[in-house]
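During the practical work, I worked with a single protein chain and the C-alpha cells that describe its fold, as given directly below.
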Amino acid sequence: MKKKILVAVMATALTGVTCFAQTSTGVIEDFKPSSLNQPGQEFPQVNSQGYARFKIFAPSADSVKVSLGLGGRGGTRLAKANDGFWIGTTEGPMDEGFHYYNVNIDGGKFNDPGAMNFYGSVRWESGIEIPAHDQDFYALKNVPHGNVAQVLFPSAITNTLRRAFVYTPPGYNSNSKNRYPVLYLQHGWGEDETAWSNQGHANLIMDNLIAEGKIKPFIIVMTYGMTNEVKWGKMREFKIDTFQTVLTEELIPYIDAHFNTIANQSNRAMAGLSMGGMETHTITLNKPEVFAYYALLSGGIYTPEEIKDKSKVKLIFISCGSKERPDGVKNAVTTLQGAGINAVSYVSENTAHEFLTWRRSLYQLAPLLFK
C-alpha cells in the first residue's frame, strides 16, 4: 500500500529554508547513502533523523529481513517491489554511530553487498553509520596523521604467530630519540584486533587530540584478545590466564624491543571495551607491576577492596552508555574516590553498548593518561 505523502514545509526564496517531504509516519525523505557503503552504492541510506533504509536485490526470495545489532532497533522487514528489489525503513531512528547488521533472506544469513564489512559477532558483518552530532572528534581531518602498522609476534604459549596493530603518533619516525608511553587497548567479544581502528577510529581520535594539543602523544597497541574460541554465552570457558601470558610476557616485551617505548609500569596503560574490559579488570589486578592506568569501557567496575596497593594505580577510568548502567559506574567511582584512589567516570549520552559509547570514552580517557 502506498503511503500518503505530506508536504511538511515549502522552501521559499524569502526564508532560504531547505525542507523535505515528510511521510505520514513522520519520516523525513532526505535519505543519503551511508558513509560506510561500498564505492558507488546508493544503499543503505540514512536520513537526518537517524532512520535507515535498505534495498536488497533478491528476485526469487519469499522474505527479506535486516537484522541490526545493539542500538539498531532489532529487525526490519523489507517489502518486495516489482523489479525484484526489497526495500524497507527502520521503524524508528537508530542510535547515532556505528552498527553491525546482516540480511536474512529466506532464513539464510548474508551480508549486504552495498555496505562495507567489519569483523564483529565472530564474523564479517555489514556496517552502517548514523551520523553523530559530535562526530567531529573522530572525523578524518587535514592534520598530521600517525600510522597503524601490523606486527606479527611469536607466542610460545599458543604455539603461533599472533597479530597486533600498533598506532604510532605523528612524527614518530622523524626522531628516533623520542620515547612514548603505551596504551594496550582491547576489543569486545566477537571482534578482533581490527575493531578499534576500523569501527572505533582510535587512530583518528588520537590524531585530532594531538593536533589540538589536548594530549601527550602515546602509542596504542591493539591485539586479538582470544586464546581459545568461546561460543556466545559461554565466556566462563575463556582462558584468561593464557591471554594474560600472551599480553604481559610475550607482546609487551616484543613491543618494548621493537618500538620506542618508555618501558616501565608508570608509562603503561590497559583499557578494554566489554569483554576487553573484563580482560583489563583481571589482568591489571593480577599484574599491578605492569600497568599504572586502568580503564573499563562498558566492561564492569573496580572496588577498593580489589586494589591491593593504591600507590601503584595512577588512574581508574570507568565508562558506559546512558542506556546501560550509568548509576553503577558513577557509584563505583565515587566509592573508589572515597578510598583515596584517583578515579573518573564518564557516561556517553543517548548510547548503549555500542561503538559511539566507546569512541567517546576513548576521547575522554586519552587526555587523562600519562600525566
